[in-house]
Amino acid sequence: MKKFLLWTFERGSRPYDVICAVILAFIFLVPQRLFDDRPDYMRISADENVRRSKDSHGNVVYTVLVDGPAVASEAAAEQDALSRLRQTVHEKFEINRTEPIYDTRGKLIAYAIWIDNGVLPF
């Protein structure tokens, strides 16, 4: 076991090749979802338009999906997300900050919107 931990095998030997194969198998065969460490507010499925959650500090965060082809720029997408949130939540609230959420290919898919803790609509 000590040889495996310290990697003392000669290059090209059978144990060296086995260790390399195990490492490559781990990299390529372990499902990617096991390493998904995004915060809860960054997770939203395609079937829900607005999702309410909390961040690590207990602040209320709404995650609002963005219509992909319907928006031309990020500013327009942010305004669209804010208006969709206002239509969903029928009480007054203040927006503290917004943060874009991108998929693994870099495409804008949603906005995380923090609202004021003093006014909790739901």
Give the topology, please:
Elements: H1 2-6, H2 14-29, E1 50-54, E2 60-65, H3 74-88, E3 95-102, E4 108-115
Antiparallel strand pairs: 1-2, 2-4, 3-4
Report on the structure:
With 122 residues, the chain is of the alpha+beta class. The chain is built from three helices and four strands, in the order H-H-E-E-H-E-E. The mean pLDDT is 81. The chain has two domains: 2-30, no CATH class; 40-115, 2-Layer Sandwich (Phosphorylase Kinase, domain 1), CATH 3.30.200. Helix content is 30%, strand content 22%.
Summed up, what is this model?
The chain has 3 helices and 4 strands; from the N terminus they run ααββαββ. It is an alpha+beta fold.
Structural class: alpha+beta
Overall mean confidence score, pLDDT: 81
Helix content: 25-40%
> What sequence of helices (H) and strands (E) makes up the elements?
HHEEHEE
The main β sheet shows up as:
4 strands, antiparallel
Please tell me how large the radius of gyration is: 22 Å
Q: How many structural domains are formed by the residues?
A: 2
**CATH architecture designation of the largest domain:** 2-Layer Sandwich
Low-confidence segments, ≥5 residues, pLDDT <50?
none
Measured between the Cα atoms of the first and last residue, the distance is 56 Å
Strand content: 15-25%
Count of individual helical segments: 3
Specify the CATH class of the largest domain.
Alpha Beta
Quaternary status: single chain
Number of beta-strand segments: 4
The name of the CATH topology of the largest domain is Phosphorylase Kinase, domain 1
What is the strand arrangement across the widest sheet? 1-2-4-3
Mass-distribution shape:
elongated
